Each structure stands twice: as C-alpha cells, then as structure tokens.
C-alpha cells in the first residue's frame, strides 16, 4: 500500500509543477497593452512687458519754412539731390503739398543716420502738383547729428500772379479797335504778345 501511494504523490506533484509553469508561460505570452501617445497642448504665451519704440529712432529732420505770398494756395514741394555731373533729381518719397506746421507753412521729412551729412540737396516749390517750378532753395546738406533739424527758408513774395488786363478800345473815328494784352502782374514781363489786332482806318483830308 505504501509503495502504491508514493508514485501517486509524485505524479500529483509533477502535474502541479507543469500546470504552474504553463500558467506562467501563458501569462508571459500575453501582449502588453500599448500606452496612449503623449500629446502636448501649448498654453497661453507668457505676458510681455510692452516697450515703447520711438517713431524715428536715431534720425534727424529737414524742414522747409515758407514766408510771404499766398501760402494757402495749391503749392507742391519736392526735395532734389544733385549728382556728380550737376544734374538735379527728385528724392523719392520727399514730395508733398505745403502743410501748416506749428502756426507756419512748410514741410518736414525724416532723415536716417545712413544719410547724415550727404548732399547737396535743394527744395523746389511748384505751382500745384505737376506744375512749373516757381521757387528754388539754396543747396544744403543733410543734418550730421541725431535729433538735429536742418532749416531751409524760402519766400513766395516775389512770385507774380498771372492776370488778364484788357486794354479798352480808344473811341473815335481814327481807330476801329485796339488789341488786348496778357500781362504778368507783380513786376513781371509781358507773358503773351498781342492777342488780336486790327489796323485802324484813318481819314485823310483832301488836299
């Protein structure tokens, strides 16, 4: 009886060991679940302290001041630069009408540091945009230091105003009618000659 019991006990032990090993193997072979991918959501941007930036840092100005005449008229200004051959050319961006600045008429433009001390330049005033030039300033150079202003002054007092002045016909039998002249008032010369003319007829007495 004892001999029969020993094999039975050993057989049960072998079965238990094999069963636990197979269970561990099954547990090892089970797939490991993949964790979800990490995602990054940007948060609000950090607050920045606003730093005021000057409108024209490190530059200077040129300023035109106009005296006399009808400065509220249709005047157009332009800055020109002179090349090595003496020819004058417009500076792109430095054109515009006269403006009311601090109680006086003129125009102002900003100058960058890269332009300091260059020249020569000049201001030109036209009778309206696209019109004829009527005033030329003296040549000047741009400012050389930061924050400086180069003042240029001109006058409109000597500019004549075109006026039509008719000469009335002289009455009488000797003249049929007289011409009309277009004069340039204000000390100017005759702009146009006779607009129309006719010869007067003179009566001659019989000899």
In a few lines, what is going on in this structure?
By secondary structure, this protein is an alpha+beta fold.
CATH architecture of the domain at 60-155: Sandwich
**How would you classify the quaternary structure?**
single chain
DSSP summary: helix tally: 1
CATH domain topology of the domain at 60-155: Immunoglobulin-like
Q: Kindly, what is the distance between the CA atoms of the first and last residues, rounded to a whole number of angstroms?
A: 196 Å
Order of helices and strands: HEEEEEEEEEEE
Flag low-confidence runs. 1-18, 22-27, 38-54, 163-207
Mean pLDDT: 69
Would you write up a description of this structure?
- With 207 residues, this protein is an alpha+beta fold.
- Among the domains are: 96 residues, Immunoglobulin-like (Sandwich); 33 residues, no CATH class.
- The chain is built from 1 helix and 11 strands; from the N terminus they run H-E-E-E-E-E-E-E-E-E-E-E.
- The strands form 3 sheets. Strands 4-5-1-8 form a 4-stranded mixed beta sheet, with no helix packed on it.
- A hairpin with a 5-residue loop joins strand 6 and strand 7.
- The radius of gyration is 49 Å and the shape is elongated.
